[in-house]
Design goal:
It is globular, with a radius of gyration of 20 Å. Helix 2 packs parallel to helix 4. The N and C termini lie far apart (56 Å). The strands form four sheets. The protein has a seven-stranded parallel sheet, with helices on both faces. Helix content is 40%, strand content 15%. It has a domain of 219 residues: Rossmann fold (3-Layer(aba) Sandwich). The chain is built from twelve helices and 13 strands. The protein is an alpha/beta fold. The structure holds nicotinamide-adenine-dinucleotide and 2'deoxy-thymidine-5'-diphospho-alpha-D-glucose. Nicotinamide-adenine-dinucleotide binds next to helix 1, strand 2, helix 4 and strand 5.
């Protein structure tokens, strides 16, 4: 049975991915997660006793721990989800983003090289064991701001604008370097904005659902006309599974839902679905360095690997709101304690942006 090391598997996308893979395949899955504020074992209660699943609490930067995991579990593939993932937090404190996203990825690469190379001590050898792969879960934010027209292709220049996206870009480049220099079998996926069950409510959609449900103000940054290309998390999981199995070694694949929406449209859709009033909307100070538009050209993954998104946004957002209504305890737990400190820190100084209120 193949062993897959999933890092960051207690977070939003990683936990959805583990459950999806355990249901569909006979793989052993080892989940290495530090359980930062974003990691939550309650996302995985349905499968915690599955004999094919092992959880290890630890840091992807920990050299001896990662080495031991390779030795003990005979890892065949790594899917690296582990990251500091929130742009606003990267503006507040960039350093941890460099640590986890860059150095952590490098530590995984170095251990994979040592475990997978047929002659690990021969620096000229480029031969690897059969069937191994390092899959780096990256983001469309590495391309920076798209402007009003066009789409991101895999050839678009890398121009990250936030400390978060700069750290993810650095990790991508290190993965690329391990392929070019050491011959490591790698893929990089660059996905657009995800939504769906178990997303931490620092991100737009769950934050707005939670605030709206509790009749709290809905803090829209700037004029709310920034555009993101939304993809349901289950479609992202299927895309990663597809790249794991069929991705050509060394290739980058963009993943996106052909689904561009302005933030304010999403906020209004949530308000409508929950039967609340648009008076809850509050335009607040914009995010510094805020990218105006992202949109993915997914031609490569659709034509070469046969993946395509299955959810329409209308279905997906309705299902996500229903999930939240049926899982209020999950939200109650993740928003207790530290979350309110975060929320107050992040939003109390974001005075109302009067210039935008007429939009
Ligand atoms: P998340 O913040 O919900 O989860 C991140 C997980 O990583 C958490 O469980 C956390 O505990 C863990 N983690 C953090 N630092 C760690 C460390 N040093 N060692 C081990 N584990 C650590 O993030 P997410 O939204 O699930 O995103 C997962 C990945 O997908 C990230 O790499 C992100 O850049 C990428 N991505 C996210 C989106 C999106 O819309 N959410 C879109 C494209 C790409
Ligand atoms: O594009 C992929 C990226 O999508 C991932 O790499 C990141 O990990 C993920 O966090 C996400 O980044 P964004 O910055 O696009 O997501 P976020 O949910 O933070 O914000 C979405 C948009 O909504 C963005 O334009 C900022 C805006 N926003 C966000 C919040 C939290 C608001 O207007 N108000 C808010 O309170």
């Amino acid at each position: 049975m193949k062993s897959i090391l999933v890092t960051g598997g207690a977070g939003f996308i990683g936990s959805n991915f583990i459950k999806f893979m355990l249901e569909k395949h006979d793989y052993k899955i080892i989940n290495l997660d530090l359980l930062t504020y974003a990691g939550n074992l309650e996302n995985l209660t349905d499968i915690e006793n599955n004999p094919k699943y092992t959880f290890i609490k630890g840091d992807i930067c920990d050299k001896s721990l990662v080495k031991d995991i390779f030795n003990k579990y005979g890892i065949d593939s790594i899917i690296n989800f582990a990251a500091e993932s929130h742009v606003d937090r990267s503006i507040e404190n960039p350093e941890i983003f460099l640590q986890t996203n860059i150095l952590g990825t490098h530590n995984l690469l170095e251990n994979a090289k040592r475990a997978w190379k047929i002659a690990p001590d021969d620096k000229y050898s480029r031969e690897y064991k059969d069937g191994v792969k390092f899959l780096q879960v990256s983001t469309d934010e590495v391309y920076g701001d798209l402007g009003e027209t066009g789409l991101f292709t895999e050839e678009t220049n890398l121009q990250p604008n936030s400390p978060y996206s700069a750290s993810k870009t650095s990790a991508d480049l290190m993965v690329r370097a391990y392929h070019e220099t050491f011959g490591m079998p790698v893929n990089i996926t660059r996905c657009s904005n995800n939504y769906g069950p178990y997303q931490f409510p620092e991100k737009l959609i769950p934050l707005m659902i939670n605030n709206c449900e509790n009749n709290k103000k809905l803090p829209v940054y700037g004029d709310g006309m920034q555009i993101r290309d939304w993809l349901h998390v289950k479609d992202h999981c299927i895309a990663i599974e597809t790249v794991l199995h069929k991705g050509k070694t060394g290739e980058v694949y963009n993943i996106g839902g052909n689904n561009e929406k302005a933030n304010i449209e999403i906020v209004k859709l949530i308000i409508k679905n929950l039967g609340k009033s648009e008076d809850l909307i509050e335009y607040v100070k914009d995010r510094p360095g805020h990218d105006r538009r992202y949109a993915i050209d997914n031609t490569k993954i659709t034509t070469e690997l046969g993946w395509s998104p299955s959810y329409t946004f209308e279905e997906g957002i309705k299902e996500t709101i229903e999930w939240h209504m049926n899982n209020k305890d999950w939200m109650r737990k993740v928003t207790s304690g530290e979350y309110m400190n975060y929320y107050n820190r992040m939003y109390s100084q974001r005075t109302v942006d009067k210039d935008c209120q007429t939009v």
